[in-house]
Amino acid sequence: MTHSSLTDQGSSFSSRIRSIDVISIMLALSCIVMGVFFYTLSDTRSALIIPLFGALFVMLAWAWYRFRGVTDTSVERRMFPIALICLALMYGLVFPPESVPDGVYHYKVSYYCANLIGHSDNPHLIRAEDEELLSIANGVPVIVDKSSISPIKRNLSAFDSNEELIENADYSAFVDGLNITSTFVQQKLAPALGVFLGKVIGLNAFWVYTLGMIFNLFYGVALIMLSVRITPIGKKIFMAVALLPMTLHLLGSHSYDVGTLGLAFLLTALLLRAMRREEKITIKELLGIGIVGCLLAPCKTVYSLIVFLAVLIPASRFSSKGRAIAVRAIIIVLPFAVIALLQLPGILTMLGITQSAAQVAEATSGEGAMQPYVLGDLIADPGFAASLFLNTFFVKGWEYLLTFVGSALGWLQGNLIAPEYFTFMLLLLVGLSILRSPEDKGVLSPKARILLFVVFAVAVLAIMLALCLDHTPNTYDYIEGVQGRYFLQIAPLLLVALRGSAFCVNRRMTFALIISFVALNATYIGFIFTRLL
User: Fold this and answer.
1) What distance in Å separates the CA atoms of residue 258 and residue 221, rounded to the nearest whole number?
2) Which of 4, 73, 366, 514 has the most neighbouring CB atoms within 10 Å?
3) Averaging pLDDT over each range in 30-39, 153-162, 453-462, which range is the top one?
4) Max intra-chain CA distance, the chain
């Protein structure tokens, strides 16, 4: 065999080896290596299962990509939702009930709404075993460890349920004190339907909780998938934020942040599409933006700032310049009118104009020494207000990053915090999602990018202001209560704003990003298992 033939064979072989092959093999091997490490660390096979599942997912996806051929549409509509659902289910099942932030509250709301769906004569009634599940936490954050999964082990038999109804004092007080105007159908209908169905068919407490979680998960996934399909720009960005551990952690729970995040994504996608289209705008398109904006508005007021992107809808899409101005104004004003109608008392209390009943009781009894900041004081001293906000970023900045990507889950339990390199790898993947690539190469104009960044920045400051006025003692020199998960809903605004035309990758990136997120999440869940078992 001549030297030239050897060279030809070598070049032919190297041409068949693609970067995606190397990436897939490395990711699968890393999952296996980390799984074996977790097994030796915890001395239980369960810690090995999830990383091996991640390796299997990566290799099956690679085989599909390599031998069947994969289109951008199939990655978006098949692979991404499968990865999203599987990972969210894993987080939902790994973390015990009520170990997620405000988990007790969210499940109580789901249960109450399920009682309403069932036309219960007395919404105070709760099944004895469901009361036992709720009392696991008893208002205290559940610590994720070996003891926290014992109730799950006792309840693996799905239909071993006790239908006895009792009136639990703690649950009854919660129902009486629940402000139903802060619990909206678009946030709680899905998990409540799951809880209602679970009780109807006689599932036990754990599986009733889990079925409600699954309904909430599929609701969130449906909204996220619709957003990815609609947006004409930044599809990789939406997928990357959705595959962060914190997003998956919320999807695998009863949290009403699931509905809020999905609606925020959907509103952003609808407005980006309206900005990029060239044909005349339709009534159907305007109704879609208006309805989603009004559904999002009462969930969390601050995310309604997204509607200001409506000013970027081209005037050429309307029949006249005057009509363009009028329609944009209506789109922006409508959600805030809904907010004023439904949440005016709460807004006045937050601004310090009025006091809540709890604040009045505290003032009367002399108890509750915590006095939050007042908006008037911050306005009167803008220098101090600026230093308060800046100092918050110095004190809490790293915590914001951890709780944004999800390197710190549950109740920010110390031994569940992932290693720092894991956080940086997640941030790297999010950064790569910004880059233009053949399947996602759109970029906005500089003016549009500036507005997206301004809306994001104002929303962040508004979130911090809300927690400053409601949750921070006026003796603190930083703002308390803000977590990075509050920024997930508006993250696409910042990431799309950061995308410029200067950097473009010649290869398609979506497939590689998804399998990378799967591998990272699988190893992180394996890491969490070492604390559980």
Assistant:
1) 9
2) 514
3) 453-462
4) 97
- Per-residue pLDDT, 4: 44
Eight-state DSSP code of residue 440: B
- Give the span between the Cα atoms of 525 and 48, in whole angstroms: 10
What was the pLDDT predicted at 347?
60
Q: Which of 30-44, 249-263, 494-508 is predicted with the least confidence, judged by mean pLDDT?
A: 30-44
Q: What is 413-434 written as a DSSP string?
A: -GGGPPPHHHHHHHHHHHHHHH
For the stretch 154-187, pLDDT in tens is: 555 555 556 666 666 566 666 666 655 556 788 8
pTM of structure: 0.87
How far apart CA 428 and CA 422 sit, in angstroms, is 10
Q: What does the alpha-carbon distance between residue 270 and residue 312 come to, in Å, rounded to a whole number? A: 12
The CA–CA distances, whole Å, from 156 to 24, 169, 210, 423 equal 35, 27, 11, 34
CB 280 within 8 A of CB 318: yes
Residues 493-511: b if buried by 16+ CB within 10 A, e if exposed: bbbbbebeeeeeeeebbbb
Mean pLDDT of 47-62: 87
Residue 359 in this model has a pLDDT that exceeds 50: no
Measure the CA–CA gap between 437 and 422, rounded to whole angstroms: 25
Matching residue, tokens 């949750």:
471
C-alpha span between 178 and 468 (Å, rounded): 23
Burial of 265 (0-12, 13-18, 19+ CB in 10 A): buried
User: Among the ranges 78-82, 224-228, 338-342, 414-418, which has the highest mean pLDDT value?
Assistant: 224-228
Nearest CA to 54 out of 75, 24, 78 is that of: 24
How many other C-beta atoms are found inside a 10 Å radius of the C-beta of residue 298?
A: 20
| Distance separating alpha carbons of residues 207 and 130, to the nearest angstrom | 10
Question: Do 130 and 111 touch, CB atoms closer than 8 A?
Answer: yes
Task: Quote the tokens at residue 50.
Answer: 């999830």
| Cα(254)–Cα(188) distance, integer angstroms | 8
Is the pLDDT assigned to residue 506 strictly greater than 90?
A: no
For 440, phi then psi, to 5°, come to -155, 70
Give, in order, the Cα–Cα distances in Å from 235 to each of 23, 61, 259, 263, 317: 21, 19, 20, 16, 23
Tokens 């109730």, residue?
151
